[in-house]
Prior knowledge:
This is TraB domain-containing protein. It comes from Aegilops tauschii subsp. strangulata. By secondary structure, the chain is mostly helical. The protein has two domains: 1-86, no CATH class; 88-124. The chain is built from six helices and no strands. It has helices at 3-8, 11-21, 23-48, 59-71, 78-81, 90-123. Helix 2 (11-21) crosses helix 3 (23-48) and helix 3 crosses helix 4. The longest helix is centred in the C-terminal third of the chain and has 34 residues, at 90-123.
Amino acid sequence: MPQDEKAAVSPYELYEKLSSSYPSLLQPLVHERDMFMAWSLKRSKAVNKSKTVVGVIGKGHMNGVVYALISDQGDLRFRDLVGRESSETWASSVVKGLVRDTVIGLALWALYELLQAAAVHIKL
Length: 124
């Protein structure tokens, strides 16, 4: 393919080819990368306490990054980028731990009672 033809292929055409040929790669290679770059630019701005941040973004990611920054309502977080659920509150974590420990305690108590009854039955 001549050099001029290579340059004529737009990022949108590549996006269309990728989405039809490898749809499972589109999310991690394009969308998640766009979100990560937007998060990184936002974080750099916050860390440096500056009004302006310069980032180098490939042409294929420009629209996605700009969209992520414009549509951000202040809730663009790293945990959203890596697919983790929002962290539990300490209260729900404590309640879950108490329920788990109570169930384990009851099971151990029931096992102890069974062993005690078996020991008494064997002595008779």
